[in-house]
Amino acid sequence: MSNLNIQTRRQFLKTIGMASAGFTVASAMTGCSMAPRPKPSAQRPNIVFIFTDDHAVQSIGAYGSKINKTPNLDRIAKQGVTLERCFCCNSICAPSRAAVLTGKHSHVNGLMTNGTTFDGSQPTLPKYLKQVGYQTALIGKWHLQSDPTGFDYWDILPGQGSYYNPDFISAQGKTRVEGYVTDITTDKAMDWLDKRDQSKPFLLMCQHKAPHRIWAPGPDHLTMYDDVDIPEPDTLFDDYANRSEVLKDNEMMIAKHMMYDYDLKVTGSEEPDALGRKFKNGERTRMTPEQREKWDAAYEPKNDQFRAAKLTGKDLVRWKYQRYIKDYLRCIASVDDNVGRLLDYLEAQGLKDNTIVVYSSDQGFYLGEHGWYDKRWMYEESFRMPFLITWPGVTRAGARTRGLAQNIDFAPTFLEAAGVPVPEDMQGTSLKPLLRGKTPRTWRKSLYYHYYERGEHHVPAHEGVRTDRYKLIHFYDTDEWELFDLKKDPQEMKSVYRESRYAKIVRTMKAELARLRVLYQVPPLKPRKD
Ligand code: SGN
Ligand code: CA
User: Fold this and answer.
1) Index of the ligand 1 atom closest to the CA of residue 94
2) CB within 10 Å: which end of the chain, N or C, has fewer?
3) Chain segment 268-287, per-residue pLDDT in tens
């Protein structure tokens, strides 16, 4: 960076009163990005960040979905850029959200598991944007336990929220809103846009509950896909051979760990899952009589057929997969419709040309791959995140990039867009250099991942590193390692960690993991032995 740039940057920090707030002249990982110049408020782009919960790229048209269509998400991809290799740093809801807000890994922002309360006193994306004149709003799923900070306006779902007639909590208290959560969240987002102070640029985080478990479709999509079979993933009947022993202990199998009434909507079933659980579907009990009538009219004829068929073995697993994936995709269909409504709104209001639009989701999800639902593992399906972006004047329409990106990069990207220097303690890097579709030679070559929970679904804590071609995973409670050659084995069905021809790669990957642990200041591992 030239002296002139450093000076400009210092001057800028002084102007916005942040010179003493942990900023320095160098951005954290980029090394030498050009110093942004202060922009007059009117030229700072608006930012609409649409964030869903558990939406896997395997169910997005722009990512080559074989199981559904998403015309409105694809609109963003066509007008902007698709990040093919965007990953989370910890594949679980609250930690991913905290990483997005802070630009930091879980061990640094303090939110390592869903059971932790977010420390809202720390610096976050909306706080930095507010300081340069942005209006900030968060609507929908929050899940960080403490009240949102840094937002001029917030209206959030309590905890995981509900699909039907959801409660919302704002600074004014709690209210129940009749209707379907994805429609309501979008309505609320547009209401806020209508009422905002039009003289200021804005950050709107529109965060949907869908398509999170229990995958309750809205009234408009209850019978969608009734007449088709959704293709099964190749690994639906995975036996977990050739990988760590810990895989076999998982509790997230479609075959064994879905509850009939709760997950599979077989109303009234008393049959427990493999863990002896038989919860009731709480969405159905929240419905108005009219909503429930429509719901039952959609499910009961199919449930009658299912009960009569008395399926067993693989046929039963196949039936469960179809029931699950159709409900999941029905939830996505509503997300897609509502993204379309929001895009139409931005166009109609003349906001399109000065608004960055991002579609992403807190992590990926297993859509039957490895026989699973849920997430948490560092395997591709739940490690990956969708990231579609239009940034007027920056993104090249229809471009795709394979540069390695991570959720800690989102805040730095938006700060760069707003002309705010990236604070030195943010660990991510602005993604702007990727948005013409080419990956600069100096771009990062590896990503660090760390999952800490040891609870629901029985996924052990693990950390790892992914490069363009390889992935090294360490299940440190049992000190088991896996190495995948993603070029030869994209479905990650065979660890080559012990194969002598990969010995050199193992050494290199371990060294890379050690380097990343130093770079990100990861504390020593705490294996649990029991
Ligand atoms: C709930 C779900 C789990 C899910 C976690 C975390 N169970 O506990 O299946 O893994 O959330 O999801 S449920 O019966 O309550 O649906 S996350 O997206 O919030 O991290
Ligand atoms: Ca999630």
Assistant:
1) 20
2) C
3) 999 999 999 999 999 999 99
Domain 448-519 has CATH 3.30.1120.10: yes
Q: Which atom of ligand 1 is nearest to the CA of 373?
A: 9
Cα–Cα nearest to 361, from 91, 65, 45: 91
- Read off the tokens for 53: 């919960």
DSSP string, 437-458: S---TTS--EEEEEE---STT-
Of ligand 1's listed atoms, the one at least distance from the Cα of 212 is: 18
How many Å lie between the centroid of ligand 1 and the Cα of residue 213?
6
Q: Where are the beta strands (DSSP E) in 352-394?
A: 355-361, 387-390
Confidence of residue 30 (pLDDT cuts 50, 70, 90): very low
Which of 456, 457, 458, 459 most suits a substitution to test ligand 1, by most atoms within 8 Å of the C-beta? 456
Instruction: Give the pLDDT confidence of 212-229 residue by residue, as tens digits.
Output: 999 999 999 999 999 999
Residue 373 is given by DSSP the state -
The 3-class SS string of 284-339 reads: HHHCCHHHHHHHHHHHHHHHHHHHHHCCCHHHHHHHHHHHHHHHHHHHHHHHHHHH
Tell me what the mean pLDDT of segment 397-406 comes to.
97
> Bridge partners of 389?
81, 358
Residues with CB under 6 A from ligand 1: 53-54, 92-93, 114, 143, 160, 212-214, 374, 456-457
Question: Whose CA is closest to 61, among 375, 372, 335?
Answer: 335
Locate the domains of the chain by residue range: 45-215+331-434, 219-325, 448-519
Tell me how far the alpha carbon of residue 52 lies from the centroid of ligand 2, in angstroms: 8
Which among 54, 114, 208 is the best mutation to test ligand 1's pocket, defined by most ligand atoms within 8 Å of the CB? 114
Chosen CATH of 45-215+331-434 out of 3.40.50.10540, 3.60.40.10, 1.10.357.140, 3.40.720.10 = 3.40.720.10
**Residue count (the chain):** 530
Q: Are 45 and 392 in contact (CB under 8 A)?
A: yes
pTM greater than 0.90 (yes/no) = yes
* Ligand 1 atom, smallest distance to 92 CA: 20
Pick the residue whose CA is nearest to atom 17 on ligand 1. 93
Q: Give 418-441 pLDDT, tens digit per residue.
A: 999 999 999 999 999 999 889 999
